[in-house]
């Protein structure tokens, strides 16, 4: 029997979707789903009246109306780290492609297709000097954003015999602990920028970082440095970058977010938002997204939400009803919920609460059914955002 309707948007790897059992329908055409799995397409949660949760199979959630979702009690997940290796696995080759003039070298080889066969090796040897490059080893890498991707990139730089500097204004302890000790973490961004031959961006786009890479940012970079953007297009002020490429202050701009002006510039290399596009990464993201979504839909448990607190509670076998109360994070809500339930003689087996400063989330296990009238009473409180009654079988 179908309990939950899932809508997929974009190509979601089957490895994850296959984990959903018979209780789920999965349909890209479903316009009234309980859950959504999406990659980079724009999603406005207002378009889905019964939506409970959305999982972004990836890291960035700038394509989703997260603030609206919070107001409506819709849980938004992402899949931290699931595609990080794929990004790192592309950024280093892209830097190498620029430094070693690979692109020009490949075009040159293609141009030899019409040359008589006995002349090809002569042409190769006599003209290859034009494509001489420089090595990654020995260069200094600056990583802006030491999250899942940034830490792997910084460590990868050390493994490639680079000097590595990194900056992050809000580093998580988990990520910092994974950094190799050879990486220098600077307290100010300018100290990373001023040291680096190659600056790579690995931070989210938000109201604080939109346009962050402007003329001032670029002026703090070493003359002749290379800028790499595999984070998000709008973090970079394109005009400032193009001006710096023209003046020579930047040697090159390597980006996953092509625009007409960037593509047209001779000192750029672009890929079509390919950072996460590997079989392995798509499988990882899909499996993680589906796991998060099903734990939420079945049990109300939360891991890796970007707008709700993390919380997990395993129900006792005697529990019949799991009541979820999602509320604004204001004082007195636990007392309010327990009072309403107590007034109606409801025996609480387990009460678990977490908050993230904006949303309070309560998992309340009950050994009986729960009347709709009690839920209605809870929902009448203006600080209650949403409730769910999950019947455990
Ligand atoms: N090109 C692609 O296909 C992909 C792009 N991305 C982009 O890369 C971004 C980073 O991904 P993850 O490392 O997985 O995320 P993450 O959340 O693990 O790390 C982001 C880091 O950026 C830091 N940060 C925030 N504001 C900052 C600022 N002003 N300056 C420096 N650091 C700042 C955060 O503190 C955090 O440590 C994502 O938000 C996404 O936009 C992610 C995956 C694939
Ligand atoms: O799913 C994709 O291809 C894009 C991945 C991405 O940009 C992200 O995870 O933030």
Walk me through the structure.
InterPro entries: ACT-like_dom_sf, ACT_dom, D-isomer_2_OHA_DH_cat_dom, D-isomer_DH_CS, D-isomer_DH_CS1, D-isomer_DH_NAD-bd, NAD(P)-bd_dom_sf. It catalyses: (2R)-3-phosphoglycerate + NAD(+) = 3-phosphooxypyruvate + NADH + H(+); (R)-2-hydroxyglutarate + NAD(+) = 2-oxoglutarate + NADH + H(+). The chain is an alpha/beta fold and 393 residues long. The chain has 14 helices and 16 strands. The protein has 3 domains: 115 residues, 3-Layer(aba) Sandwich (Rossmann fold), CATH 3.40.50.720; 149 residues, 3-Layer(aba) Sandwich (Rossmann fold); 83 residues, Alpha-Beta Plaits. It has a 7-stranded parallel β-sheet. A 5-stranded parallel β-sheet has the order 2-1-3-4-5. Strands 14-15-13-16 form a 4-stranded antiparallel β-sheet, with helices on both faces. The two termini are 13 Å apart. The mean pLDDT is 97. The site of 1,4-dihydronicotinamide adenine dinucleotide (NAI) has 33 residues, from helix 3 and helix 6. 1,4-dihydronicotinamide adenine dinucleotide binds next to helix 3 and helix 6.
Instruction: Describe the largest sheet.
Output: 7 strands, parallel
Q: CATH first level of the largest domain: which class?
A: Alpha Beta
Radius of gyration: 26 Å
Distance between the first and last residues' Cα: 13 Å
What's the number of extended β-strand segments? Answer: 16
Give me the number of helical elements: 14
* SSE order: EHEEEHEHHHEHEHEHEHEHEHEHEHEEHE
The appropriate CATH architecture of the largest domain is: 3-Layer(aba) Sandwich
Q: Tally the structural domains.
A: 3
Percent helix range: 25-40%
Q: In one word, what is the shape?
A: elongated
The proportion of strand residues reads: 15-25%
CATH topology of the largest domain: Rossmann fold
The chain-level mean pLDDT equals 97
Bound molecules: 1,4-dihydronicotinamide adenine dinucleotide, 2-oxoglutaric acid
Q: Give the name of the CATH superfamily of the largest domain.
A: NAD(P)-binding Rossmann-like Domain
Which structural class do the helices and strands define? alpha/beta
């Amino acid at each position: 029997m179908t309990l939950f309707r899932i809508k997929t948007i974009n190509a979601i790897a089957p490895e994850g979707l296959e984990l959903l059992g018979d209780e789920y329908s999965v349909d890209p055409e479903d316009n009234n789903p309980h859950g959504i799995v999406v990659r980079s397409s724009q999603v406005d949660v207002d378009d889905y009246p019964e939506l409970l949760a959305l999982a972004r199979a990836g890291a960035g959630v700038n394509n989703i109306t997260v603030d609206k979702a919070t107001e409506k009690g819709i849980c938004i997940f992402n899949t931290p780290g699931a595609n990080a290796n794929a990004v790192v696995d592309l950024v280093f080759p892209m830097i190498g492609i620029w430094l070693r003039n690979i692109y020009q070298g490949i075009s040159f080889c293609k141009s030899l297709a019409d040359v008589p066969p006995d002349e090809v090796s002569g042409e190769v040897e006599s003209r290859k000097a034009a494509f001489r490059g420089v090595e990654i080893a020995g260069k200094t890498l600056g990583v802006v954003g030491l999250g899942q991707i940034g830490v792997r990139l910084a460590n990868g730089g050390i493994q490639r015999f680079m000097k590595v500097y990194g900056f992050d204004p809000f580093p998580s302890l988990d990520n910092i602990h994974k950094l190799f000790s050879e990486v220098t973490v600077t307290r100010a961004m300018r100290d990373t920028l001023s040291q680096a031959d190659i600056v790579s961006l690995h931070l989210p786009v938000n109201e604080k970082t939109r346009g962050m890479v402007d003329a001032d940012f670029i002026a703090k970079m070493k003359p002749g440095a290379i800028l790499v953007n595999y984070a998000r297009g709008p973090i970079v002020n394109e005009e400032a970058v193009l001006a710096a490429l023209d003046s020579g202050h930047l040697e090159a701009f390597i980006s996953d977010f092509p625009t007409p002006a960037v593509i047209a510039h001779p000192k750029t290399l672009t890929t079509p938002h390919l950072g996460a596009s590997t079989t392995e990464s798509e499988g990882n993201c899909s499996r993680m997204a589906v796991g998060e979504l099903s734990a939420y839909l079945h049990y109300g448990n939360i891991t890796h939400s970007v707008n709700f607190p993390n919380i997990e509670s395993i129900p006792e076998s005697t529990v019949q009803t799991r009541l979820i109360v999602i509320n604004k994070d204001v004082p007195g809500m636990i007392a309010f919920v327990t009072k309403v339930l107590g007034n109606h003689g409801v025996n609480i087996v387990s009460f678990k609460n977490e908050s993230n400063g904006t949303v309070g989330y309560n998992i309340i296990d009950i050994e009986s059914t729960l009347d709709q009238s009690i839920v209605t009473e809870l929902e009448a409180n203006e600080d209650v955002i949403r409730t769910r009654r999950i019947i455990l079988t």
